[in-house]
Amino acid sequence: MKRNDMKPENPKTRNKRRIYWTIAIICLIYGGITFLMFVFSLYFNHARTQFNPPPYISNISNVPSTYGMAKQAVIFRPMSHILPTIISILTFIGSLVSIGAGISLLKLVREKETKELKREVIDSMIMPDEKIVIMELEKNNGALTQSELVRNTGLSKVKVHRIVKRLESLEIVKKYPYGITNKIKLEKFLEE
């Protein structure tokens, strides 16, 4: 097939894909930044409560009293550690949600691109009569009996049998025994 014969990509689809990629990347960046903020806040909250003055400071007359007042302020305000803890927890949850949203959005976009690519490859490989059979299957929720395909497409039994056999070898359809005929089903990626 010549390159000029291929159908061009829809600009709306391309713009939508760019928007989804941009949003996913922004979610991942935001999640990474908030996770770093969580780590820093956790470190500074923990380091602040673990501060002990070096022994040489106790020799200076006015420093121990300052440290003593700060220590008493922490003792008299037990709620002072709750707010930073809540902020740290919320930051951590926000980072996980943002990273999860970014990853799931990337996964959805990749799956959609893969399905579109498979569809384009299949469209370039199949013959016009095979397209008729696939379109008939798509009209009927992805499954018909082989005798219904013969009746609906107007093709001969032999022709439908050969088409089904070729589509089955390309893994586009699956054939299952169904009474005295066969049930033909489209693969999942073509049904959507």
Describe the structure using short key phrases.
single chain; 192 residues; mainly alpha; Arc Repressor Mutant, subunit A; 2 domains; 3-stranded antiparallel β-sheet; 7 helices; 3 strands; 70% helix; 8% strand; elongated; disordered N terminus
Please give a structural write-up.
This protein has 192 residues and is mainly alpha-helical. The protein folds into 2 domains: 3-125; 128-191, Orthogonal Bundle (Arc Repressor Mutant, subunit A). 70% of the residues lie in helices and 8% in strands. It is built from 7 helices and 3 strands. The chain has a 3-stranded antiparallel beta sheet. Helix 1 packs antiparallel against helix 3 (82-125) and helix 5 packs across helix 6 (157-169). The longest helix is centred in the middle third of the chain and has 44 residues, at 82-125. The chain is elongated and about 85 Å long. Residues 1-6 have low confidence and may be disordered.
Query: How large a portion of the residues is in β-strands, by DSSP E?
Result: 5-15%
Tally of separate domains: 2
Largest sheet: 3 strands, antiparallel
Shape type = elongated
The strand order across the widest sheet is 1-3-2
Q: What's the SSE blueprint?
A:
Elements: H1 11-49, H2 63-76, H3 82-125, H4 128-139, E1 143-145, H5 146-153, H6 157-169, E2 173-178, E3 181-186, H7 188-191
Antiparallel strand pairs: 1-3, 2-3
Helix pairs in contact: 1-3, 5-6
Concise account of the structure shown:
By secondary structure, this protein is mainly α.
